[in-house]
Design goal:
This protein is an alpha+beta fold. It is built from 17 helices and 23 strands. The chain has a seven-stranded mixed β-sheet, sandwiched between helices.
Length: 515
Amino acid sequence: MQKYILGVDIGTTSTKAGLFSLDGDMFGFAQQGYPLFQDLNGMAEQDSEQIYAAVLQVIAELSAQVSPEQIIALSFSSAMHSLIVLDQHQQPLTRCITWADNRAAAASQWLAAQPEAEELYQRTGVPNHPMTPLAKIIWLRQEQAELFAQAAYFISIKEYIFLQLFGELIVDYSIAASSGMLNLDQLAWDQAALNLAGISSKQLSQVVATTYQLTGLAESLRLKLGLSAECRFIVGSSDGCLANLGIGALDEHSVALTIGTSGALRRASKTAYLDPAARTFCYPLLDNLWIIGGPVNSGGIVLQWFYEQIYAPQTSATLGNDYTPMLAAAAQINAGSDGLFFLPYLAGERAPLWDANARGSFFGLSHQHTKEHMARAVLEGISFNLRAVLELLEIAPATSLNNIIASGGFAHSSLWCQILADIFNCEILIPESVESSCWGAALLGFYACDMVTNLSASKNLLKIGQLYTPNLANVKRYAQSYQLFSDLNQQLKPLYLKLAQSRIINTDKEQICQS
């Protein structure tokens, strides 16, 4: 009888799940979306119960395709940096505040001014930014005192899911690290970070290994989900770490590229690496395996904005987001978009700028430019920004890079993949399955269940769907364009703060939507 592990990836816009065998074949896939609430300036929240319902739905949908005994375990991936505030009865006081929420910008600036700030990065491996739960908790303490006084626990969305399933507050040390409050040497909560947040370790979950597992799901829920009594629940890791695992990018010569709503470049290391300038993150996947990288806000959500607001607002409102005609038209535009540049910072930026005040702009517009030029410039701008992140990873640690293995929704676009190959001047490998975090979660589950002994062998299971090689003519053109893009970033950086300070502040922007 064939055995499977169900890999569940709790993402920003949807929860996905895949049913995998040990050889990496996916026998079923399910996905359920949910909205992102952006009612106020800087807000990016979600309904925790909607996400929990989506998790249950994808599990039940896949389990119905096989017998209960065939699913030996479920293993979980999750987006990082989310925050849910619970009261003393473990009931939500807030919605799920996602990584994209920018309302902790002032708190992040306050944190940067503290004497402990530089040392804090060296202990936690997380650059200071409004995305972090640490900054969000400080914001709540400083701006939402009444809510903060009611807060008994601060958890992430994956912790919320396990709380609903098993009534336990646990967090894997990868998700815990992304909070900005985990001491990497001890893999325990960092007291100095907790002091800055104004909370105690009792208000946070128990930190456990990524292979930690639970059994004994309540019978009524187990039957609803179509699982056996012996089915294990593996706590898993973060989506970025598991994307590296899922595509076999576990040596120091391979880089994983993911572009979904946001994006990231990551590489593996046998030891923790902390950038002297605090420009990269460092998260533990296993005791002897660390993932170093840089996350960007400016991913597919920027292309979605351009399509909906500029390229085809009426079409997107009635027919949905079919980018195919836009991308086909953009492919007819010369590399470099005939001198048009786009800085993709619609929601500030994490790596490489780490500037919540950064904003987007087109530069070089002329009468000759069309919507198609703008569409290509958007793709190029996102890609230029990712190249700047790649340069950070080429420094840390100092080893040669052989290839870039890519995953995420963008991989369906041949134009975007070719643009990246040309801008990076490197081969881009696209796996047959781009659901790398789901497979990474399942593979970690097989490892936790002692069915896999060497995770490095995961690269042998990688099935390459497409290979994009650099177009040398475009490489030369993009090298010149990238230098100008970098110059623009340097010139505009001091103006972002002035722009932020010049705004008439909406007094509602500091509010939070309570559950």
